[in-house]
Every structure is written in structure tokens, then in C-alpha cells.
Amino acid sequence: MSDLILKPNIDDADEFYADLLAAHEGLDKADSDALNARLLLVLANHIGDRTILSQALAAATLKKE
Amino acid sequence: MNKIFEVPLYAYERSPDQDAPSPVRHKVIVVGAGPIGLAAAIDLAQQGVEVVVLDDNDKVSFGSRAICFAKRPLEILDRLGCGQPMVDKGVVWNVGKVFFNDREVYEFNLLPEKGHERPAFINLQQYYFEEYLVNRVRVLQAEGAPIEIRGRNKVEAVGTHPDHVKLEVETPEGAYTVEADWLIACDGAGSPIRSMLGLDFVGRVFEDNFLIADVIMEADFPTERWFWFDPPFNKGQSALLHKQPDGVWRIDLQLGWDIDKEREKRPENVIPRLKAMLGDDVHFELEWVSIYTFQCRRMEKFRHGRVIFAGDAAHQVSPFGARGANSGLQDTDNLCWKLKLVMDGKAPESLLDSYDVERLHGADENILNSTRSTDFITPKSVMSRILRDAVLDLSEHYEFARPLVNSGRLSVPCTYDGSPLNSADALDGPERTRPGSPCPDAPVKDGFLLPMLAGKFTLLTIDTDAPEMIEEDGIEVTRVALSVKDDPTQELKRRYLGNAESAVYLIRPDQHVAARRPNFDEPMIRQAIRRAAGKEHAHV
């Protein structure tokens, strides 16, 4: 079983980040929050593996283990 | 015309107990003639146990209340001799629709698995459910079974003793005292017995109110379960529409926390809400309106010496998922055969502790599921609402999000994994029939499997030999011999053999698997019988 990747893994990171900002452009707070939530769920489903998802939830809290 | 719930079905009659010089001792007294109390009494009476049911009322439940009955309880009712009238009267449904705001986001079909005698669900008003149980009691009485229902017999005080329970009972003709070897308390979520004994009932309170209405209408809505999140006619809240027999529809509208209940219940306030939901041109008649709040909680343990709690008296869940009456019927199904063995001296009293172990596990599973449904339906924070709405929006476009939508995870029976009555799994067989599992039905010969396994210890053999009858320390086990050839659809093989060539299943009277192996091994089967009767401690 693989572990959550916490090393750089995105091809052309700057381009991705710009896309992320562009997706939110012109949206009010409520619409942006909704977009983030949908994006999160789409990505979570793509990962699927509950172990990885648990590791991701833990990683996002920024707390040391 | 009087509705069934307006007619006394077990009117008060003076009992000889009221004139007895000293308190009469009964074998079992059941308090509460609701679905669970009646099921318990029927189960015991069918086994020849003398039982008296006391109820402070004399009618079936007022209003439809519990309406959704799942397959497993229907199978239990078959064993109690009253499944057929329920299924004949009930409405079978398979399709559900989910709406969000002003649109339908998706439709689902329960796609019930084939090869079961009973449907996945029926909708049936609780008053019919209780009426059919009372009818069954009357049939048993006519056959001479030792069962009695006493209407308008209200328990006012309980005294517990090591070998019996003493009750003070109030009637229209004054009070009397009566005793029982065992008391089964099925007196509902507000259980007076529980309060009289000063027992705990802890859990989580949900700060919400729901308006529940039964309307009679000639409408061409299909026989489907419709659930709305945040609909235009009930902004920020939820709604449910479900069909019952006799053209009665259940409507459930979430109202929120800060409301005036008495005001909301008045027809002049209810009718405009329903018109907004159903449309101005639909003609309907209000049959019953109620407002409920709910909690998810349970007792720390269900057995307190000679007093045993079952159903809502022992555990309470939110209505989402139909886990109230359905789980209560599994309680009494679990309890009654054990109580019979203990009363007959064929099992130690400690067998009853396995009722606690197994049904606490069931209650926890139900509380977990119903709490999760409630948290989805009524988000408790800004972010939980954002996530909930994101799931609903996605579910309209993508299939992946649909399993996350939670408008109630419909009741399925629980598997007693880790029960002290289970023997270690010795078969390379299917997961769903491992020890602790409720036996799944399967078509065999001209009928179905489950009726062959009802109410007694059974040794089910599939394509292997075993004695026709074994007796181990007073417990008789009869064989049911089958072959995979008895089921041309191969469901028996899929559900009970998997990769195995043959199997021997030891099945409890409540149709849960106690042990399984590829073939008959006498010492091991005898040991499994002892363990299933609480006579052996599980290996640690």
C-alpha cells in the first residue's frame, strides 16, 4: 500500500496554481467556498484509498504526529 | 367511519388477579403493547411460555408513527405467524428520488437482491402493524396458548427481587399487585419502568423539530420515496414524502428548533405548508399531525436482573433510516429464545448477558448510522452545510457523489461479530454468512430457506452428511439437509458455500449463524451448541 505523497508531485506547479486562482476569479465568498468543497470531494473520490485520505486529513491539520 | 386506532382492541376487563388474596405470580410480564411488546409476547407464547402484556391504553398506536418495515423484521414476523398480512397490506417501494432546492438531483433504485421471499421494505402504518399482531394474539389464544393482553393496566411501581419482579398496577377499578419471574419492558422511549428503576438513558439531543403529517389524497404521485433538501416550500430545511396503504401519504417537514409547537400543529398552519409542497390543486385531507423531536441514546445495559428492556425503552434513534421498530423486533428475536432456555433450566442465566452484548452492538450501529444521517440532513456548522450542499450539487452531475448523500441509511440487520456465542469460523465460505450473521434467505425446492430454520436450533447441511438429530445437554438440534441442486438459481451456493464444496451450519433459533464448518465433526458441533447456549466461554 502506498503512502500519501508529501514531496513535490505536480507537473508545472505554477501553472496549476494559476488555474486554481483563475477558477475562483470573480466568485463571491459563498461560491468560492462551494467550489473548494466540490473540488475537495472530486479529488477525494479520485484518491479513493481511505488510508491515503486519512493521512491527507491528518497532514492538512499541520500538527506533528 | 372510525379508524382502527380509535377502536379499543383490548378493552379493560377485570382479571382474577385483581381479586386474588395474594399476588399472582406469572412467568413473564411484558409492559407495553406496542410492536415490540406484542412481538415479545407472541414469541414467548409460541414457545409455550405463559405471558401477560400490560398496557396503560386499550388501542393501537394513534397515527401512523413507524411506517417503514425492512426485510429482516418481516422474516421475524413470518416466524411469529403474522408476516403475510403485513406484506399483503403494505406498500412495496424500490425507487427513491432526491431533490435539492428546486430540482431533482438523482433517482435511485434499491434493486433488491433476488432470491428472497420478502421485499426489501414495506410501508405500513403502525396501527395496522399492531392490529395484525393483536389478531395473532387472538389466534394463539383460540389455540389455547398462554397469552393475555390487559388494557388500561398502568404500572405504577416496580419492585425488583433476585428471583422475581413485583408490580403495582392501576386499573379503572383500582390498583392490584402482581408478580412475574421476568419482566420485559417495552414501554417506549419515555419508559416509565426505566424511570421507576432510576436507570440511565444518555446520549445526544438533536435540537430540531419535525412536523409529521398523514394526509389522505387521491394523487398520482408514484410509489416512491421522495426526499428534499432545502426545498422552496420549506427553505433551509428538509422534507419527505412516502406512500402508505389506503391512499395515505406520510409527509415529514423539518421545522428547526425555535418554534411554537402548539401553533405549528394547528390545521390553519399545517395546511398552507402542505399546499406549498403538494400544489394548490391537490385535494387532501389531514388524518394525523404530530411534531416530534428526537435523541440518539441508549441505556448502558439492557438487562437489570429480572428486568429486561427492549425496543425504544432501551435505545432511541432518529427516525432517518427506519431503525426504531425494526431494531426493536430484532431485540425480542434475540431475547426470547434465550429467556426460554434459561426458564427451562437448559442454559445458565448468564446466557441473557449475551442479549446485552449482541443488542448493545446493534443499538450502537443504529445510533451511529442514524446520527450520521441526521448530521447530513441538518448540518450543524457553516462548513458542514457547505460540504453537504457540495455533495448534493455534485450528485446531480456525477455518480460518485451519490453514495455520500445521506437521507437515511436504511435498516439492515446487524451481524454479531465477536459475540461470545459464536464459534470460530471454520469454513472458507462467504463473508455474509460468517458466525454471528443473520441467515440470508435463498430459494430452495418449492419455497424458501428461512421458514425451514424457524424458532429452533438447526443444523443446516449442504451436500454433506450429519445425524438427523443431536441432543447436547438438553438442547435439541434438528437437521435440515439441502443440496446446491435444491436451488437452480445457485443462490444457496453463493450465499452459503462460496468456494467450499459442502457446509454444516449451526443456526440459532433467531436464525443467526452460531458456527460453520465444511463437514460434520461431532465433538466440535457439540462444543458449538454448548457455546451458542452460553455454556462455554469463548477462547480468548
TrEMBL record, chain A:
<dbReference type="Pfam" id="PF10932">
    <property type="entry name" value="DUF2783"/>
</dbReference>
<protein>
    <submittedName>
        <fullName>DUF2783 domain-containing protein</fullName>
    </submittedName>
</protein>
<dbReference type="InterPro" id="IPR021233">
    <property type="entry name" value="DUF2783"/>
</dbReference>
TrEMBL record, chain B:
<keyword id="KW-0285">Flavoprotein</keyword>
<dbReference type="Pfam" id="PF01494">
    <property type="entry name" value="FAD_binding_3"/>
</dbReference>
<dbReference type="InterPro" id="IPR036188">
    <property type="entry name" value="FAD/NAD-bd_sf"/>
</dbReference>
<dbReference type="InterPro" id="IPR050641">
    <property type="entry name" value="RIFMO-like"/>
</dbReference>
<feature type="domain" description="FAD-binding">
    <location>
        <begin position="27"/>
        <end position="365"/>
    </location>
</feature>
<dbReference type="InterPro" id="IPR002938">
    <property type="entry name" value="FAD-bd"/>
</dbReference>
<feature type="region of interest" description="Disordered">
    <location>
        <begin position="421"/>
        <end position="440"/>
    </location>
</feature>
<keyword id="KW-0274">FAD</keyword>
<protein>
    <submittedName>
        <fullName>FAD-dependent oxidoreductase</fullName>
    </submittedName>
</protein>
